[in-house]
Amino acid sequence: MSVLILKSVRNKNYFNIKKMLCVSCLVSVVYNVSAETEFNIDALDVADQTTIDISQFKDEGFILPGDYLLEIEVNKNKLPLQTIPFYEVAEQKDKGGVACLPHDIIPMMALTKEAIDKIDSWHQGECANLLALDGVIITNDIANGFLRIAIPQAWMKYSDPNWIPPEQWESGITGAMIDYNINGQFNDANQQSVTNISSYGTLGMNYSAWRLRGDYQTNYSSGANSQRSSSVNRVYAYRPLPYMAAKLTVGEQQLNSQLIDGFRYTGVNLANDERMLPPSLQGYAPQVSGIAKTNAKVTISQSGRIIYETNVPAGPFRIQELDSSVRGRLDVTVEEQDGSRSSFQVDTATVPYLTRPGYVRYNLTAGAPSEEGDSAHDIHGPSFITGDFSWGVANSWSLYGGSLIAGEYNSFGLGIGRDLYSFGAFSADLTRSVADLPEQSTKAGQSFRVNYAKQFDDYNSAITFAGYRFSQQDFMTMPQFLSRKERLENSDFSFIDNEEVWGDKESYIITANKTFWADDATKALTLFLDYNHRTYWDHAAEDRYGLSLSKSVNIGNINNISLYLSAFRTKLGNSQDDDNISFSVSVPFADRKSVGYSVQSTNSGVTHLANYHDYSRPNDTYQLSAGVQANGHAVSRGYYSHTNSVAAVNLNASSVQSEFTSLGGSVRGGMTMTEHGMALHQGGQRGGTRMMVDTGDASGISLNNGMAVTNSQGLAVVSSITDYRKNDMRIDIDLLEDDVDTTDGIKEGTLIEGSIGYVNFDVAKGFKFLARVVLPNGSYPPFGATVAEESGRVNAVVDEDGMIYLTGVKGGQSFDVSWGGARQCKIIAPQEMADVSMNKLTCK
């Protein structure tokens, strides 16, 4: 109430401030008194003290009986909005209404079985008596829309403060979605123009806990080799199983196993989902790094399906937005604006992990391999079943293993994981494959693998992942077996150079970082290392290694001058090495603005550039570059990025004198549709979790620092939601218009994967006015009477001579006026603001 009064003062509405502040103090006391309270009404500056009724404020938590739309807060964790009845209890008449907790709310509180058995009922069995548990405290905070419940930890199942229990997760509502990424590029080189437009994304529908998804990708190119293609290359459905910490998936997928090399298949999978576990038990997500010679498009795919695509400015890049569930070998393509392309592969693997003692993690799959490309939905190979597990043998030991059985091809593996405590985490495993190829003898071989990870806090460094693998010549993965079998069945013994049929021999992978002199910011130097080495039994070796150095220095009065050096080399078989070296200096000269110099060396030559960067506006950033190549040709580049509540837009341009001119752009966003309406929004994880926010008929309401803004329907969607973790939806109070008020600026929710959550904010958008309430007999309601909306939210308190001040009022809206412990009459607001000029409102 005091918030409403102070806001009205800000808007220069005239009324007796001293009296209204005094009333607001009374309202504030209502929910804070510890026992029956007596008020000294002589302290009030009221002419007629016989018409004062503040009796309803004298008892702690006094609530008028009725139904209230409230959020239930259990130990500071919020449950979904509920309609809570308040009934009068004979032995507690002085308390007004007592909250009736429906029995279906109890399972959401994550209570122990002993606690649930103790809870009895009242009001003819309709209400659960939570007070039957010793130490439980229920506090009414109706004015702010809350019913707060404090439960001793002894009655709770879980005690991890960083984890919301499954009982409080939400499946969301029924709806449909599309998440899209559109890229366009125009190149004019050597008097030939090429236009390329591509798009990829995910279509989806939700019903209950089931999620149906389809990944699409399209491409159109005009020019000498014009072509177009379009496909839905993966269709699948899944549902989380929270109480099993698992996920059930049906349809077309990529095999995701601890031991068996991944491939595309159609079938069914049941696996543990680490994201449902407390944070300390979860894995890691891979990252991709490199150097772009020009403004470029980076595409990351797996088995022909685009996983991630983005535009990056010229220079070093590091992509860390990949989902933690991505495993196996990734194909990375960098398309430069001068028309050149470079490709490399990134091997990802799971950092060695330990399973809690006595627990078993599992991953079970049945299906058949499926084709890639234009025949993406066709079966390609024998049916199979596969599974892997990890068993926590002891505090520091885990045993894991797995197998794939397909008749013609079978593989088996077993390994151990060990927590080395201060020396990191380690795992080692051995896998054997047995393959029956047409017209050839049985091929059998082994593959040995060692993985290691360690965070060296004392030395400010980490080995994010290190792995070594050796495979015998006759060892085969499932994709290699299928490729060899197909060629043999087609009498093709040439085995042309195709990675699928090369025999893997050795591989070394390491990603690490180290900060030198970390205790002194003026001397600190950070080093990043990426190394990937692979050899084959029947093909030349491949290498990719990169080194990055970053340092910040101070020179005179100029602080935080950034120095960055990055170098990458890719060796693909017998082809020429692809070398990229980049060095840059960036000097800040204003708030988030900088100028600098960079030099980049590639196989095609050396380029020197002067750069200007402007990051002063978080949602609008750009950089401009101009320079010269070693051959004397002038170079100019521009890159602009804009993010708003419905999309992220990137624009880029490059030009090299006498060589090429290129223009490009991308748009990334999404659209979500439910029974409540439709909203465009920023792009999050494709087909991932999102929260629809409803502010009624209030449009233009900014949420989460402008991340989303409600549309004309009063709807917005926040797409940056973390699965199985508490997420806050916040109204940006400072950005509200003067005719908008809200009493609940924060909502919380914990959603399972792929959900469309829904929260409704109580936002009042309407006019404000000062009026006098008059009873039918010409008298006024007593000083201290409350004026409340139909939802039960108190909007105003009656001042002397019936004066009230209302905010966020809609034309014709009705309000209940209460005193003496009961609702007495009702007033109706005028239809328009112009109708009010200190008019009287009759309370009938």
TrEMBL record:
<keyword id="KW-1134">Transmembrane beta strand</keyword>
<dbReference type="GO" id="GO:0009297">
    <property type="term" value="P:pilus assembly"/>
</dbReference>
<feature type="domain" description="PapC-like C-terminal">
    <location>
        <begin position="772"/>
        <end position="827"/>
    </location>
</feature>
<protein>
    <submittedName>
        <fullName>PapC/FimD family outer membrane usher protein</fullName>
    </submittedName>
</protein>
<dbReference type="InterPro" id="IPR043142">
    <property type="entry name" value="PapC-like_C_sf"/>
</dbReference>
<dbReference type="Pfam" id="PF00577">
    <property type="entry name" value="Usher"/>
</dbReference>
<keyword id="KW-0813">Transport</keyword>
<dbReference type="GO" id="GO:0015473">
    <property type="term" value="F:fimbrial usher porin activity"/>
</dbReference>
<dbReference type="InterPro" id="IPR037224">
    <property type="entry name" value="PapC_N_sf"/>
</dbReference>
<dbReference type="InterPro" id="IPR025949">
    <property type="entry name" value="PapC-like_C"/>
</dbReference>
<dbReference type="Pfam" id="PF13953">
    <property type="entry name" value="PapC_C"/>
</dbReference>
<feature type="domain" description="PapC N-terminal">
    <location>
        <begin position="38"/>
        <end position="184"/>
    </location>
</feature>
<dbReference type="InterPro" id="IPR042186">
    <property type="entry name" value="FimD_plug_dom"/>
</dbReference>
<keyword id="KW-0998">Cell outer membrane</keyword>
<comment type="similarity">
    <text>Belongs to the fimbrial export usher family.</text>
</comment>
<dbReference type="InterPro" id="IPR025885">
    <property type="entry name" value="PapC_N"/>
</dbReference>
<dbReference type="Pfam" id="PF13954">
    <property type="entry name" value="PapC_N"/>
</dbReference>
<keyword id="KW-0472">Membrane</keyword>
<keyword id="KW-0732">Signal</keyword>
<keyword id="KW-0812">Transmembrane</keyword>
<dbReference type="GO" id="GO:0009279">
    <property type="term" value="C:cell outer membrane"/>
</dbReference>
<dbReference type="InterPro" id="IPR000015">
    <property type="entry name" value="Fimb_usher"/>
</dbReference>
